[in-house]
């Protein structure tokens, strides 16, 4: 039986040997050295009693040490929880509730004490927060390196990681991915690469990483780059295009908003991006016009991926695909009508998919799991069609969401929160294009009698409860909401008129 994940990652680092696999803060790290860091982190975690099934939260950036800590947590069979920047206090507390150990490279404000195996602290996230053991990354990596390949303790049926959605319903939903699913993932398995991914892999010589390696997208493309023989190059903050030039990057991941800004910057003050070979756009739809502008300015470097937290990658369009197409999906995919029956090619319907590495459900959310995961299929709640060549085209959303900086936010919680303000009688929100964030929240409000809603007050109300990304950037006052023929609020008319 093949060794489960992250065994293949250990093989990749071992095979890399003296080859540089990471460039960070002007330092080159070889595969052998990074593997040694993994061994140290594994031994440090074991000294703290971390093993299969234990929850370990990662508050980490994109350093080699962060990579080593994440892989080490998987080696010991832990349930890894990654925290992204920008979470509210309640959201962070929600994510940390099932993690007994937190690993951080940002210990600011935490009271620490020295122990025999590194720096440790006890800390909470606020009033009523559960206390956990916090391990500072440098301390963890000071454990002994015994030079012995660590034995992977991961059990296939155990949850390997919790991948959180954006938290637009108030708190993030945790998608549970098992070790069996991670082992079946495509990034570290060249034999499983579909044509578009294989083409992409050949362009990842110097892959620029930023933010956090606890990110699902950043880690998986990072693993793809390492598997393809590339080097991970860190940039934080990732100021484009300067970071691409300074680090001689051949590839990186971008949101639609970042791509739009990069194109605008290149048109206004061009720099030499001759070494750039791939930009992976993910998180939100890329309009055909935006793609044409990018190709005209940057050349044939745009790969447009489509996937979800619940499924991982579903499809990818390589350069040269018709604008708007997402390529031919390499996974199981059905387009179904409202009654759940598959439809013919060319007919619009809701997308249901099955991928090798899809999650098994939502952590401790059986009712919600039953709505989305059924008989091995995942309901995407996105609308689309397959053309005669099998290419996928998205046509809309079956769910009412706004995608801000590649994160999905539901309209309902924002509307309900706005409606509690004394100046608001009714509230409706829609997505509007935004050059900075891809999409933004536009609120249409029916005022209460004798009151005039203020955008600043409404923004503050939403930001405090749901986060800044959910706060409306535009406000339109309306006398009444337009209705569809079925008597429901017609948001398409709102958006078209706004």
TrEMBL record:
The keyword Ligase applies. Residues 106-126 are annotated as: Disordered. Residues 414-488 form the AMP-binding enzyme C-terminal domain. One of its GO terms (molecular function) is acid-thiol ligase activity. InterPro entries: AMP-bd_C, AMP-bd_C_sf, AMP-binding_CS, AMP-dep_synth/lig_dom, ANL_N_sf, ATP-dep_AMP-bd_enzyme. Residues 16-363 form the AMP-dependent synthetase/ligase domain. Keywords: Ligase. This is Acyl--CoA ligase. It comes from Streptomyces daliensis.
């Amino acid at each position: 039986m093949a060794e489960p994940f992250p065994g293949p990652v250990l093989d990749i680092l071992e095979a890399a040997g003296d080859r540089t696999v990471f460039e960070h803060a002007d330092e080159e790290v070889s595969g052998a050295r990074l593997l040694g860091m993994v061994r140290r982190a594994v031994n440090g975690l074991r000294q703290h009693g971390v093993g299969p099934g234990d929850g370990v939260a990662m508050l980490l950036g994109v350093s080699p040490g962060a990579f080593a800590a994440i892989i080490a947590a998987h080696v010991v069979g832990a349930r890894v929880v990654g925290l992204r920047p920008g979470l509210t206090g309640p959201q962070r507390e929600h994510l940390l509730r099932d993690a007994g150990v937190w690993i951080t490279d940002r210990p600011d404000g935490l009271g620490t004490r020295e122990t025999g195996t590194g720096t440790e602290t006890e800390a909470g996230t606020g009033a009523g927060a559960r206390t956990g053991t916090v391990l500072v990354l440098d301390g963890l990596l000071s454990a002994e390196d015994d030079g012995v390949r660590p034995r992977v303790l991961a059990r296939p049926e155990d949850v390997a990681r919790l991948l959180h959605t954006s938290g637009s319903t108030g708190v993030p939903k945790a998608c549970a991915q098992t070790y069996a699913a991670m082992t079946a993932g495509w990034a570290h398995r060249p034999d499983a690469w579909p044509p578009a991914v294989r083409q992409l892999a050949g362009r990842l010589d110097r892959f620029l990483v930023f933010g956090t390696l606890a990110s699902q997208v950043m880690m998986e493309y990072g693993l793809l780059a390492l598997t393809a023989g590339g080097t991970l190059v860190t940039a934080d903050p990732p100021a484009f295009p300067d970071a691409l030039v300074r680090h001689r990057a051949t590839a990186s991941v971008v949101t639609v908003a970042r791509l739009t800004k990069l194109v605008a910057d290149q048109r206004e003050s061009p720099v030499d991006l001759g070494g750039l070979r791939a930009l992976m756009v993910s998180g939100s739809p890329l309009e055909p016009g935006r793609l044409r502008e990018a190709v005209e300015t940057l050349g044939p470097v745009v790969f447009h991926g489509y996937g979800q937290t619940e499924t991982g990658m579903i499809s990818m369009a390589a350069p040269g695909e018709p604008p708007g197409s997402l390529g031919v999906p390499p996974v199981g995919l059905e387009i179904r009508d409202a009654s759940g029956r598959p439809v013919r090619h060319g007919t619009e319907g809701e997308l249901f998919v099955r991928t090798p590495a899809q999650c098994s459900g939502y952590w401790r959310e059986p009712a919600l799991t039953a709505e989305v995961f059924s008989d091995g299929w995942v309901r995407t709640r996105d609308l689309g069609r397959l053309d005669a060549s099998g290419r996928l085209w998205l046509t809309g959303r079956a769910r009412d969401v706004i995608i801000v900086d590649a994160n999905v936010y539901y309209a309902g919680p924002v509307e309900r929160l706005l409606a509690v303000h004394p100046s608001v009688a009714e509230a409706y929100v829609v997505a509007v294009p935004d050059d900075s964030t891809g999409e933004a929240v536009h609120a249409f409000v029916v005022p209460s009698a004798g009151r005039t809603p203020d955008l600043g007050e409404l923004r503050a109300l939403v930001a405090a409860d749901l986060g800044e990304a959910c706060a409306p950037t535009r406000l339109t006052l309306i006398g009444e909401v337009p209705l569809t023929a079925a008597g429901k609020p017609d948001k398409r008319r709102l958006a078209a008129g706004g």
